[in-house]
């Protein structure tokens, strides 16, 4: 089984190595360290494991992740901590129960993937045995979901406000998501979505300053997603820039009729991307 893994944290090198070397073993997805982005990815991406790649994190960020860990989520999600011994000790002081598994650096992406796979296989059989005794009712699950939403809303009131602008990148190519995140995350808060469905779910409860949208995606392509965004009063004013390898003149004209704020051809040029974003949202 290819387990879904959500990668979080400031250790960009570890996250990039996971995409580069472990994505054939695990289905990797990353998000920014913003509280609401992490909660939204946990709910809609539904990872089997969250991997916190820690590096020079603020205590506020650490506190937010501890809060998320102890929130009553719809499904139990093991938290893996990848950090130096010093950082692991610091996190343990704040919350002894934060990490289900702590992995001390240096450690390779393949070693992390192996540890995740071993952990999930070992605990899956336990869950199978315990499952019959749980017998949850549908109404109880619905109640838990509502309680989660209520908890999240109350947490947002106390969450620190960031001055950085937020960008949602929508692309089914994990290499492109990784590339754009590397280009932009020094300046902007970046969240990623692997398809239009996940992006639209994200925007049901969260807002972003800009959407970078791929043209060719499974199920719903970029133009279909943009049409839904423009039809919804809540999202109709969000700027959208297309990132695509499609250079067919007719298709480009069809997209331009939807009035996106920009259209950049792949391979993406770093300077042109940054220039276009700065002109659009600053």
UniProtKB/TrEMBL annotation:
GO biological process, one term: phosphorelay signal transduction system
Record-linked SMART domains: REC (SM00448)
UniProt domain Response regulatory: residue ranges: 166-281
4-aspartylphosphate modifications at: 214
Keyword line: Phosphoprotein
Coiled-coil regions listed in the entry: none
PROSITE patterns: RESPONSE_REGULATORY
Pfam families found in the cross-reference section: Response_reg
UniProt function note: May play the central regulatory role in sporulation. It may be an element of the effector pathway responsible for the activation of sporulation genes in response to nutritional stress. Spo0A may act in concert with spo0H (a sigma factor) to control the expression of some genes that are critical to the sporulation process.
Official protein name in the record: Stage 0 sporulation protein A homolog
Source organism of this protein record: Eubacterium plexicaudatum ASF492
């Amino acid at each position: 089984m290819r387990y879904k893994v959500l990668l979080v944290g400031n250790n960009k090198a570890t996250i990039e190595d996971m995409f580069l070397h472990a994505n054939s073993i695990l289905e990797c997805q990353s998000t920014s360290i913003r509280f609401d982005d992490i909660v939204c990815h946990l709910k809609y991406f539904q990872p089997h494991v969250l991997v916190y790649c820690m590096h020079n994190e603020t205590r506020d960020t650490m506190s937010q992740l501890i809060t998320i860990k102890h929130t009553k989520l719809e499904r139990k999600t093991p938290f893996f901590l990848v950090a130096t011994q010093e950082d692991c000790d610091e996190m343990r002081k704040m919350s002894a129960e934060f990490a289900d598994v702590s992995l001390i650096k240096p450690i390779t992406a393949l070693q992390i993937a192996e540890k995740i796979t071993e952990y999930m296989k070992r605990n899956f059989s336990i869950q199978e045995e315990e499952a019959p005794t749980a017998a949850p009712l549908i109404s109880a699950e619905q109640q838990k979901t509502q309680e989660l939403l209520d908890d999240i809303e109350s947490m947002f009131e106390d969450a620190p406000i960031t001055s950085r602008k937020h960008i949602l990148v929508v692309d089914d190519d994990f290499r492109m998501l990784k590339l754009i995140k590397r280009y932009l995350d020094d300046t902007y808060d970046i969240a990623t979505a692997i398809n239009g469905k996940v992006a639209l779910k994200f925007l049901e409860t969260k807002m972003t300053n800009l959407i970078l949208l791929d043209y060719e995606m499974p199920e719903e392509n970029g133009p279909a997603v943009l049409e839904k965004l423009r039809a919804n009063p809540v999202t109709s004013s969000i700027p959208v820039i297309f990132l695509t390898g499609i250079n067919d003149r007719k298709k480009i004209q069809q997209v331009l009729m939807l009035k996106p704020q920009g259209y950049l051809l792949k391979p993406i040029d770093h300077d042109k991307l940054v220039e276009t974003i700065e002109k659009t949202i600053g």
